[in-house]
Amino acid sequence: MLHDMSITISLKKAPVWAMRNFLCLAAVLLTCTAAENDNSTDPYGLRIIDIGTHWIAVNWTDPKPLQSFKVDAEPDNDQAIGIHSTYSIYGALRTSHEYEFDFLTPYTNYTLTVEPFTSDPSVPAKQPVRATTLQYAPGKVSILHLAASHDNITVQWKEPEQANGVIEEYYISINTNVIVYNITVNGSITEITVRNGIKPNTTYTVTIAAKTGYGWGDTYYQNVTTLVTYPSGTPANFIHSDDITSYSTELYWEEILEDERNGYIAGYRLRYMDRGKQHEVYTKTNEYRFDNLTQDTFYTFYLSGYVVNNKGRCLLGPEAILELTTLQSAPAPPVYEQLRNYWLVDELVTSNQITFVLTENVLEIFSQDNGDITQYQILVIKSDSNDEFRQSGYTENMTEPLTWNQAKRKSFREPYAISLPQPSPASWSTTIRNRRTTSSQSEITIGSESCDSRSQYCNGPLQALKTYCVYARGWTKNDFYTDSDCLALATTKYNLTALIVGIVVAVGVLLLVFGVVFYCVRKNRKPKSKPRLRKDAVPLPKTPRQKDGQETYDYIESTEMRSSYIDFENEYCDPDDVHNNKTTAENGYILDAATVQE
Question: Residue 468's CB: how many other CB atoms inside 10 A?
């Protein structure tokens, strides 16, 4: 089957031997002898009687019968075959002779000579004659250069070393198992380039042969493979799965059509934009799963196949396009009171610590739609709810939790983390392909460390008689994070030891203060002075008397002096009873005010 193609032809100078200066070139046999002119002038000379491709037959006549001759066929071309032999007659001698030069080279000029072995001067020497053997099928053509790009093949050759005639044509065949290109060019052409119809990454067999007037010679063939190039087609049936979530989807596609691959498809490239950044992934299969997409986001995926050239470079083909939108991220589920009570280790709740069980079922803490939780962090806030501070989103936009000391300065009204994020338990994998059967359950105690001198995350003590919400922050592998509901909601208890110590210290301090005050009052109090009698008064014996159930004594003065009476038990004086600077006593005696004062 012959196909249209573009051919570039290079003309080369014809070889010298093909331009021989012969006057007689026959149209078919191309027979030429120089002896034809001699035959009419020398009756005893050589005559050409037959010429073939590999032989020349001659005859001659001598005036006397002879027995032996020396015969030679000397070629003009050093590469041709020469004949140097002796021709002898056995039997009766004769004057007429005939000889055939065999095993000559086709299409070669020869100088033929016959010399008789005689000393008789009457036998003349034979004049040489020239003759050319006929053309024959040429030998194999030698390919000098065979090169291929992805869309063309160049063939360069030289004439056969055994041309055996004038090269009239060359036949070039470039074929695969399916397609055959047949080209015939003039014998003066030695290079062609086939451009159209050549496919990349295809092995072609190049066959070439030469033709003389005798016919076509032997064929020569050589294989060549065109280079790979960019695929010209896109992957077929580019689709996504039906299980699109807020962070994942799976994409599928089929192979590029064979005629459009232009080489071996080494793999595929997927590119897309996410959060303002260009992302590229490479795969050698016909599917790819994304587990790190952004929730509630419109995506455009571009898919192209690629081949690898001989320099190791990836050559990408045109892109197939697929659009989809991820779902909104589901919030963490609410934690009901019975679950909190189940997780809380009530007997380990003290005045400064709360202990709870970290559940092995991640679905009770985080939504499965958010993806596998790969890390988690425990946060604490002094409140009966964390609704005000719950967050979700991507880490780059996350507000970092406080440390214990930072939260202490804010009376623990804002959440603080007890440690850096930790790897999640193995049992927290939720997707089918990653789910594990390993069970992981552990107790976590809040408030187990001393943090007064630490600036990093620390699990510091809690305050007594305060309600705390303990919750978790989880991260997925696509850098998405979300906060859970309160996993533990508990009120710390009385610190009895501190209360007792406080009471003892307070009582001790009060007693100490009371003692000091009492001592100071006693020390600073003036002693009561007794009434002084006049120097000329004669003290009388004390006489007892009863007053208000108690015994008192009176001092009695003489009649010459005024008596004074003081009731030491009743030191009260009513200012209303004072008249004219005198005070009336109970017994009717009147004392001077000066005496009373004294």
Answer: 22
Cα–Cα nearest to 536, from 556, 558, 554, 565: 558
Q: Residue by residue, what is the 3-state secondary structure of 509-545? A: HHHHHHHHHHHHHHHHCCCCCCCCCCCCCCCCCCEEE
| Structural contact between residues 376 and 442, judged by C-beta atoms closer than 8 angstroms | no
CA 361 from centroid of its chain's CA atoms:
32
Alpha-carbon distance 144 to 392, whole Å?
A: 72
Place of tokens 């299980």: 243
The torsion angles phi and psi of 89, rounded to 5 degrees, stand at: -100, 125
Edge-to-edge, what's the strand order for the sheet holding 287-290?
236-240, 249-254, 287-290
| Among the listed residues 12, 13, 15, 8, the one whose alpha carbon sits nearest the alpha carbon of residue 183 | 8
Q: Could you read off the pLDDT of 19-46 as tens digits, one per residue?
A: 333 323 333 333 333 334 344 367 788 8
Q: CA-CA distance, 261 to 256, in Å (whole number)?
A: 6
- From the DSSP assignment, how many helices (H) and strands (E) are in the chain? 5, 37
Residue with tokens 């001198």: 453
pTM over 0.90: no
Give the pLDDT confidence of 561-576 residue by residue, as tens digits: 444 444 444 444 444 5
What tokens were used for 319? 């892109």
DSSP per position, 374-421 = EEEEEEEESSS--TTT--EEEGGGPPPPBPHHHHHHTTT-S-EESSS-
Residue 368 structure tokens: 């499965």
Residue-wise DSSP of 162-174? ---S---EEEEEE
Cα–Cα distance list, 403 to 55, 75, 170, 380, 400 (Å):
112, 109, 90, 10, 9
Residues 27, 213 contacting (CB under 8 angstroms)? no
Summarised one tens digit per residue, pLDDT across range 358-402 is: 888 888 898 877 778 889 999 999 999 999 999 888 888 888 999
Cβ–Cβ < 8 Å for 391, 400: no
